[in-house]
Recover the amino acids of this structure.
């Protein structure tokens, strides 16, 4: 039986689910005395959940034009709802208008896989989107929120085809509705830093088994700031070089350069008129060129020479000797 299911192309975990149900039947039959058959446990295989990328989500979350039809607008609202809540397709189809509480910013899931009623919070952005959608959709409180163009409940296949068509028009090849549930798990645990117990409530897991599985593959504590702990990142980390000139000497060079400019300005008193200004400009250009090309020694020597001459001119001016050297 297992071989035939493998040959038919069933996934490993699907085979495990079918055999789990069949083992329950065999246990009942064995206790009733109808058979002595037993079946070994067929363990589930750990798989990595595929998700939508952030770039794909941005394409899907772009608001359609005002001229779009009802189906496109409804599908856009559904995508926003899935990203916010991460619920299953069956839950989406069974939400009614009365289940959305705009004042408390929450929605009630009456149809869940476990059969338990869930109350899920809504972010402010989704409350605004749903408010506009409900005003346009209208209907009675008992009507289905995400309905067909005729106001009836969407079938499972209709919802699947609607989302697939919407994704393809936005340039996204992935079309799985359940993949939004995996995407919500990744974003909530890794990007938003959510905790496991709140995560279990939001996804409606009856036990921690599936929650632990999601936490194992989307562990924010391990993924966050891993560059600080990675041996490869530490080995390839750039090292600081020892430079020939220290910060103190660089600061001295900068100070001497500004003093040299001051000296050039004072030197214009030596050659009055246009000729003196040309000489000043030439010396300033020389100092800038030295600093720009990182010729530290040249800039230093040039600055020290002009600093001495500038000091001499300043002393003469202070004594009232005019511009004579």
């Amino acid at each position: 039986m297992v071989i035939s299911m493998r040959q038919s192309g069933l996934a490993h975990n699907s085979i495990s689910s079918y055999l789990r149900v069949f083992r329950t039947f065999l246990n009942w039959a064995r206790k009733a005395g109808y058979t002595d058959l037993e079946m070994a446990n067929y363990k589930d295989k750990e798989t990595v959940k595929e998700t939508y990328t952030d770039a794909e989500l941005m394409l899907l979350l772009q608001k359609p034009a005002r001229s779009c039809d009802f189906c496109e607008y409804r599908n856009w609202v559904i995508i926003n709802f899935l990203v916010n809540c991460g619920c299953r397709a069956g839950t989406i189809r069974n939400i009614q208008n009365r289940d959305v509480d705009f004042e408390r910013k929450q929605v009630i899931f009456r149809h869940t896989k476990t059969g338990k009623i869930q109350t899920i919070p809504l972010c402010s952005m989704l409350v605004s989107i749903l408010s506009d959608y409900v005003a346009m959709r209208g209907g009675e409180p008992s009507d289905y929120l995400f309905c067909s163009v005729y106001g009836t409940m969407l079938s499972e296949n209709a919802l699947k085809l609607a989302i697939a068509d919407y994704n393809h028009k936005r340039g996204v090849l992935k079309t799985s509705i359940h993949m939004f549930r995996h995407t919500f798990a990744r974003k909530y645990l890794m990007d938003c830093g959510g905790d496991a117990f709140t995560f279990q409530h939001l996804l409606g897991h009856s036990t921690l088994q599936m929650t632990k599985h999601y936490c194992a593959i989307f562990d924010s504590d391990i993924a966050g700031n891993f560059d600080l702990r990675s041996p490869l990142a530490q080995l390839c980390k750039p090292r600081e070089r020892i430079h020939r000139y220290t910060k103190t000497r660089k600061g001295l060079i900068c100070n001497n350069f500004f003093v040299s400019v001051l000296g050039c300005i004072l030197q214009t008193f030596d050659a009055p008129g246009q000729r003196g200004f040309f000489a000043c400009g030439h010396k300033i250009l020389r100092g800038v060129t030295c600093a720009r090309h990182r010729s530290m020694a040249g800039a230093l020597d040039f600055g020290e020479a002009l600093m001495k001459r500038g000091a001499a001119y300043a002393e003469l001016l202070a004594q009232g000797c005019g511009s004579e050297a």
User: Anything to note?
Assistant: Residues 54-219 form a domain with the hpI Integrase; Chain A fold (CATH 1.10.443.10). The chain has three domains: 1-45, 54-219, 247-319. Residues 249-253, 268-278 have pLDDT under 50 and may be disordered.
